[in-house]
From TrEMBL:
Location of the active site: 386
NCBIfam families listed in its UniProt record: PRK09589.1 (NF007154), PRK09593.1 (NF007158), PRK09852.1 (NF007356)
UniProt entry keywords in alphabetical sequence: Glycosidase, Hydrolase
The UniProt record lists the keyword Hydrolase: yes
Species the sequence originates in: Aeribacillus pallidus
Name this protein carries in UniProt: 6-phospho-beta-glucosidase
GO terms assigned for molecular function: beta-glucosidase activity
GO cellular component, one term: cytosol
Database matches in Pfam families: Glyco_hydro_1
Similarity remark: Belongs to the glycosyl hydrolase 1 family.
Keyword Hydrolase: yes
InterPro entries recorded: GH, GH_1_N_CS, Glyco_hydro_1, Glyco_hydro_1_AS
Any single biological process term in GO: carbohydrate catabolic process
């Protein structure tokens, strides 16, 4: 067999990824309105639901919180890790690692506090100007998500979140506002983070209060239809306002294996895969795939569309496909299959894989499989915008943190990315999730750490917020410096 050497392209975008509501803090500073994320309380491990996360919030809980009756609760997404006041220090650390790109999200209620205003909040816009200027100082490209698991709470209370078609116009107005403001500073954009999330947590993904709707699946898919239209119109606006920009979609990629070669298992895996790729089929290919007709019929889902919607979806498809990848899942038709937990969704245990502290199965080869499958299907550039290991970290007496387990996880995934590039996949870049420890999206805890940079803060918000470099910090610096050659 001949020898083949896979290499990362010269201009590969190495970096890290974050979200405003897990990082910024300052939830009521400088005119920011409340966001859906500000209503999510920290729930200790023993009180979480069977899926291990605590995401959905009811209308009664929101009323209770707003009335001040929930004073015993902690809302970690309100304080984050105080990036709002420490962004210069944090960006300097990213620059020290050699980041080429930094993925962050804009907090929509910082710009439009209630969501339906005509005029934006200048103080909110000014904050991101400062962040983008700081990144520019170090030649770090911002990759900006318009909506990352949050929206103005006002749009939830007044309109019912994304179930309401009016929200499309509010979102497009917000998108156009930030495109115009940052057109000389931001060249890479994403519309909705993990757009498929809306079907797992309608509140997180779409501001939908499930206690207010009759058919939750119907509401979620109607909400996502509105997001598809909003995303397409944002693509249109981005191309008009910033002609040299690239704008992509973002999927929580859930690669599914059949448990056995029993055709029933294989068929089940195929169906689950289709349900995952439905979202990118619409955003990349520009149309609802035919396989969804049956799914909608079997689940009593009827999507209300306006006459021009399909044309909008067809005309304004994304420039690239970005996705998160943490693990793979297994589909089984057996009733007694052993379950494991995971990102958004659990599944059947894969006996060939190891698991993280949180029970997520670690599968680097699965990333190569996913990259090949996505590229075969779409033939557009791909961008891995989330991948990482949430783990408990221990600070030694001298302040060092030996996180070999994290280095090991990332090394194995980067090796498989390189193999996929060798397979012919066009990969733009890689932003690891949470380059600095931040508040967990699914559990609002701080002890589930992803960062190269340790932040001294516990699940209850206590700590000095001091930043410390972990062993992985120096390792990733070397990876970037050698463009993925020294792992």
């Amino acid at each position: 067999m001949g020898h083949f050497e896979a290499k990362f392209p010269e201009n590969f975008l190495w970096g890290g990824a974050t979200a405003a509501n897990q990082l910024e803090g300052a939830f009521d500073a400088d005119g920011k309105g409340l966001s859906t994320a500000d209503m999510v309380a920290y729930v200790p491990k023993e009180k979480r639901g069977k899926n291990g996360h605590s995401l959905d919030v009811t209308s009664a809980e929101i009323e209770e919180i707003l009335s001040g009756a929930a004073s015993d609760k902690i809302f970690p997404k309100r304080f984050g890790i105080d990036f709002y006041h420490r962004y210069k220090e944090d960006i300097a650390l990213f620059a020290e690692m050699g980041f080429k790109v930094f993925r962050l999200s804009i907090s929509w209620p910082r710009i439009f506090p209630n969501g339906d205003e005509t005029e934006p909040n200048e103080a909110g816009l000014a904050f991101y100007d400062k962040v983008f200027d700081e990144l520019a100082k170090y030649n770090i490209e911002p990759l900006v998500t318009l909506s990352h698991y949050e929206m103005p709470l006002g749009l939830v209370q007044k309109y019912g979140g994304w179930t309401n078609r009016k929200v499309i116009d509010f979102f497009v107005h917000y998108a156009e506002t930030v495109f115009k403001r940052y057109k000389n500073k931001v060249k890479y954009w994403l519309t909705f983070n993990e757009i498929n999330m809306i079907t797992f947590s309608p509140y997180t993904g779409g501001g939908i209060l499930t206690d207010r709707v009759e058919n939750v699946k119907q509401a979620a898919f109607q909400g996502v239809h509105h997001q598809f239209v909003a995303s397409a119109l944002a693509v249109k606006a981005c191309h008009e306002i910033i002609p040299d920009a690239k704008i992509g979609c973002m999927l929580a990629r859930l690669e599914v294996y059949p448990e056995t070669c029993n055709p029933d298992d294989v068929l089940k895996a195929l169906k689950e895969d289709q349900l995952n790729l439905f979202f990118t089929d619409v955003q990349v290919r520009g149309a609802y795939p035919s396989y969804m007709k049956r799914y909608f019929a079997e689940n009593n889902i009827h999507i209300e569309k306006l006459p021009g919607d399909d044309a909008i979806l067809k005309q304004y498809t994304v420039d690239f496909l970005s996705f998160s990848y943490y693990m793979t899942l297994v589909a089984s038709t057996k009733d007694d299959a052993e379950e494991v937990s995971g990102n958004l969704i659990g599944g059947v245990k894969n006996p060939y894989l190891e698991s993280s502290d949180w029970g997520w199965q670690i599968d680097p080869v699965g990333l190569r499989i996913t990259l090949n499958k996505l590229y075969d299907r779409y033939q557009v550039p791909l961008f891995i915008v989330e991948n990482g290991l949430g783990a408990y970290d221990k600070v030694e007496e001298d302040g060092s943190i030996h996180d070999d387990y994290r280095i090991d996880y990332l090394r194995k995934h980067i090796e498989q990315m390189k193999e996929a590039i060798g397979d012919g996949v066009e990969l733009m870049g890689y932003t690891t999730w949470g380059p600095i420890d931040l508040v967990s999206a699914s559990t609002s805890e701080m002890s589930k750490r992803y960062g190269f940079i340790y932040v001294d803060q516990d699940d209850f918000g206590n700590g000095t917020l001091k930043r410390l470099r972990k062993d992985s910090f120096y390792w990733y610096k070397k990876v970037i410096e050698t463009n993925g050659e020294e792992l």
